[in-house]
Amino acid sequence: DIQLTQSPSFMSASVGDRVVITCRASQDISRFLAWYQQRPGKAPKLLIYAASTLQSGVPSRFSGSGSGTEFTLTIRSLQPEDFATYYCQQVKSYLPITFGQGTRLESK
Amino acid sequence: QVQLVQSGAEVKRPGASVKVSCKASGYTFTSFHMHWVRQAPGQGLEWMAIINPDGDSITYARRFQGRLTLTRDTSTSTLYMELNSLRSDDTAIYYCARATLSYSPFDFWGQGTLVTVSS
Lengths: 108, 119
Hints:
The complex is a heterodimer. By secondary structure, chain A is mostly beta strands. Chain A is 0% helix and 49% strand. In chain A, the strands form 2 sheets. In chain A, strands 2, 4, 5, 6, 9, 10 and 11 form a 7-stranded mixed beta sheet that branches. A 4-stranded antiparallel beta sheet of chain A has the order 1-3-8-7, with no helix packed on it. By secondary structure, chain B is mainly beta. Chain B has no helices and 11 strands. Chain B has strands spanning 3-6, 10-12, 18-25, 33-39, 46-51, 58-60, 68-73, 78-83, 92-99, 108-109, 113-117. The interface between A and B is medium-sized, with 22 and 21 residues.
């Protein structure tokens, strides 16, 4: 199985901050990586796919980069609605598809 | 607009089975892959299974093989997930989700169905 490790697992930040979340894969997954945002009590929402492509309707303050085994999600100028949990997901192999353990972003 | 509407919360005894439905609308049901993902209370996301657009290929995560069954009714655009021999650690929110290809991300998700397993 392809393991995904996110760092940090928890972070606190303030509105207006720039936030970077990292996702490391246990093997090369090319650019088959997606990022999701999950607010409490809600289903995950796709933010970015193919490592750096912004899903339609997602604000441009979100961006993704990376390939191979190391990826980042950057939120430029954090907004109040961005405090949530973020997950990375690899879709290179669906045997099985795997997610990172999540990064909980809270207001400082 | 694309919608995935899941059935309501369930409470089951250990050893019982649960069947959760996911009704799709706003797109051609038989043109997309569908997945099931679950999330235990306060925990992360766990992928469970995928069914292809033709419905003739289903892959289950290893830990659910023999206990999980996916079916669908194309006449009502509804996907079903049945989990047998329930245990307390099956208590979770179960989500259906759509993907364009087997290696695509999940672009639409159902609202989730809470399954509680308790004696």
